[in-house]
Amino acid sequence: VRLTPATLLSHLEKGCDRAYLLFGPESLLVDEGCARLRQAARTQGVDEILRFTAGVDLDWQQLHESTRSLALFASRRMIEVRLPTGKPGTTGAKTLISLLEEDRDDIILVVVAGRIDKRTQAANWFKMLEQKGVVVEAAAVPTGKLPRWIEARLLARGLRPESGVAKRLAFYVEGNLRAAAQEIDKLALLLPPGQGLTIEVLERSISDQARFSVYQFVDSCLQGVFERALRMLTTLRRDGTEPVLVIWALAREARQLVEMAAQIDGGQSRHTVFRHHQVWSTRSTCVGAALERHTGTYWCHLLAHLAEIDQVAKGRRATVGSPWAQLERVALSMCGINTGSGLSF
After folding, report:
1. Judging by beta carbons within 10 Å of its beta carbon (0-12, 13-18, 19+), is residue 157 exposed, middle or buried?
2. Are 248 and 232 found together in one domain?
3. 3-class DSSP string for 286-314
4. Locate the DNA polymerase III delta N-terminal domain: which residues (predicted)?
5. Residue 342 lies in a domain
6. Cα angle value 208/210/213 (rounded, 5°)
7. 206, 221, 241: which is the final residue of a domain?
């Protein structure tokens, strides 16, 4: 049986199965699925939950022997086994198959993993889990569906988001469900149930967090306010923000500006281009200023330069000056200040 995280809850309301496999790239959904499974198991008579991690504190043979001794007791137990690599190994696969073949009523077997490749999904232990138990795959939430996922979660937490809030938060978290969930949890604590959630409230909530202030730094560069941009860059560095996160945010913006500049040069109106690229009214001024300040060629060259800085930040390329020093020159260049370092293009 195959389920999704969304259908797991209704399944558990009917009772727990004997075996589960929860896996997928969305670790938040995997973790939440495990939590729901544990809660359902406790309400249905499970007295003890034993957790093991393959390669850390798990001896497969000893695990199998211990499950046999559990049969002497009337109580039910859940055995949760985590597979960090997504593979149990030869001994682990044999143990899982043996446990599944026994069809025990006193044990709920739960296997937890991250990504599992197609080849591993064709293995006997995986297919037997799917045949005799329940497989829950936490697939990645597509970017286009993330706003809907966020809105549903906001509503579930008793918040009433106004139009545009879910899309704005989706932009900030860029597909990171855990970051989105943490922000929603914080908003639920800040606002009374049923209160409307506006974009202004959302902006105030995220303004002091390093992950989100990266975007404010980018907007300062687009606006051409170099003093504020440099001050924010210094703060990001002091707070321990990874330079690759700053590089990624700048590159994402530059990539979009390359496309927008080409479309405007091709005769499309700025209003049409902004609407196509979902540039909100609150950002139209800074994005428009950046397009007036620099050409599409500039943004192309900047994108290539950011790729070089990214290699330096990851230790794959040697150069003069730290990534932070180079990012400072990039910020000045974006603001229209010639740094004399070849970034004026």
Report:
1. middle
2. yes
3. HHHHHHHHCCHHHHHHHHHHHHHHHHHHC
4. 20-138
5. no
6. 70
7. 206
- CATH of residue 177's domain is 1.10.8.60
Do 22 and 138 form a contact (C-beta atoms < 8 A)? yes
Closest residue by Cα to residue 114 from 79, 80, 84, 81: 84
Q: What value does the CA radius of gyration of the chain take, rounded to a whole number of Å?
A: 26
> For the chain, how far is it from start to end, CA to CA, in angstroms?
58
Whether 216 is in a domain gets the answer yes
Amino acid at 15: G
Identity at 75, one-letter amino acid code: S
Same domain, 166 and 268: no
Q: Give the type of residue at 182.
A: Q
pLDDT in tens, the chain (345 residues): 899 999 999 999 999 999 999 999 999 999 999 999 999 999 988 988 988 888 777 788 888 877 776 655 557 889 999 998 899 999 999 999 999 998 888 899 999 999 999 999 999 999 999 999 999 999 989 878 999 999 999 999 999 999 999 998 988 776 678 888 989 999 999 898 888 999 989 988 876 554 557 888 999 999 999 998 998 898 889 888 889 989 999 999 999 999 999 999 999 999 999 999 888 887 899 999 999 999 999 999 999 999 999 998 888 877 767 899 999 999 999 999 976 655 555
- Tell whether 132 and 222 lie within a shared domain: no
Q: Could you please report the per-residue DSSP string of 136-148?
A: EE-PPPPGGGHHH
Q: How many domains does the chain have?
A: 3
pTM confidence score: 0.65
